[in-house]
Design goal:
about 250 residues; 3-stranded antiparallel β-sheet; alpha/beta; 7 helices
């Protein structure tokens, strides 16, 4: 999904003023594998910005160590020290805004967000969910998909709204479900696709290509369908060097 470089004969002698990198804050609660995918993209100048802080509500989240290893500010804000969800979210807003982010990325942040929090960052907060939304909102998505006998599953990047897992979808990646699929094998395939598309969606947002407005999600100014942009199983498998036999 690379883009051709732009060149102009009239601007050959022009040296643009350096601009500050777009700033990203990532919220986690656990292992942080999607965080690592974002860090890897940043390392290869493929994120479109800089992760300036990683914040966890769980002090022992391994994702905090991933942040420290990458030289990123790792912040612990334990939710159990606050008497209510609203009190915690108020403190979290203050910590986030201290870092002046352009985008907040939820990467396995296992908290239901208050309306106050969502409205504060509406339009600049992304989440990734392990299903092809609107199917299988909530937990245990892989087991539920297998129990229903679906032939296609996947993951979705969506903007966060007050409806749990119900915000407008920006980007999806599909998985063809094999006849002998297990919960473990399906989870592995979906995780691989999460790590593939989340950095892409973040980059598009930071470049101003992906936006949420009054009419929904747009990409390069064009409205997207309800499922957003969809990467097929074949295209994802090719990107990931997977065996495509199903």
């Amino acid at each position: 999904m690379s883009e051709p470089g732009y060149q102009s004969d009239t601007l050959k002698e022009f040296t643009p003023e350096p601009t500050d990198a777009r700033r990203v804050v990532v919220l986690i609660s656990g292992n942080g594998s999607n965080l690592q995918a974002l860090i890897d993209a940043q390392t290869h100048d493929e994120l479109g910005g800089e992760i300036v802080a990683v914040i966890s509500n769980e002090p022992d989240a391994y994702g905090l160590q991933r942040a420290r290893d990458a030289g990123i500010d790792a912040v612990v804000l334990p939710h159990r020290e606050y008497e209510s969800r609203d009190a915690y979210d108020g403190a979290l807003i203050k910590v986030i805004e201290r870092h002046e982010p352009d985008l907040i990325v939820l990467a396995g942040f296992m908290r239901i967000l208050s309306p106050r929090f969502v409205q504060r960052f509406l339009g600049r907060m992304l989440n990734i969910h392990p299903s092809l939304l609107p199917a299988y909102q909530g937990l245990n998505t892989h087991a539920r998909a297998l129990a229903d006998g679906v032939t296609e599953h996947g993951c979705s990047v969506h903007f966060v709204t007050e409806e749990l897992d119900g915000g407008p979808v920006a980007l999806q990646a599909a998985v063809a479900v094999a006849d002998d699929e297990t919960k473990a094998s399906l989870k592995q395939k979906v995780h691989a696709r999460e790590h593939l598309i989340y950095p892409i969606a973040v980059k598009w947002f930071l470049e101003g290509r992906l936006q949420l407005g009054a009419e929904g999600v747009t990409f390069d100014g064009q409205p997207l369908p309800p499922q957003g942009l969809r990467m097929s199983h074949a295209d994802a498998a090719e990107e990931l060097d997977e065996d495509q036999e199903v």
